[in-house]
Design a protein that fits this description.
The protein has about 120 residues and is mostly helical. The protein has four helices and no strands. The termini are far apart. This is Dolichyl-diphosphooligosaccharide--protein glycosyltransferase subunit DAD1.
Length: about 120
């Protein structure tokens, strides 16, 4: 009895999330895909290091924070570009994207410096 109620609740939750995500603008969906790509790349790097080993340890230590940092910056971009967010209503999307690019440039310069 409890299992079917839990299953129905989970289905209702997924249905409501899917119906809400359908109304999301395309530019936010593209940013979401970019975030997913960065996170999946970080997970693949960690799994690869766990399976194969950590011989070029500097590349692992610079690659994973690069992926995670890029994902965090993309989440910040998504928050700033979202029209429903009233906190950044005066910020034009071009400025948010310029901030994203500049912060990514600084992040990757630091990562390249860390590689040695």
């Amino acid at each position: 009895m409890g299992k079917s109620a839990t299953s129905k609740d989970a289905q209702a939750l997924f249905h409501s999330l899917r119906s809400a995500y359908v109304a999301t603008p395309t530019n936010l969906k593209i940013i979401d895909l970019y975030i997913m790509f960065a996170v999946v790349t970080a997970v693949i790097r960690v799994v690869y290091m766990a399976i194969v080993g950590s011989f070029p340890f500097n590349s692992f230590l610079s690659g994973v924070p690069s992926c995670v940092g890029t994902a965090v910056l993309a989440v910040c971009l998504r928050i700033q570009v979202n029209k429903e967010n009233k906190e950044f209503k005066d910020l034009p999307p071009e400025r948010a994207f310029a901030d994203f690019v500049l912060c990514n440039l600084v992040l990757h310069l630091v990562i390249m410096n860390f590689l040695g």
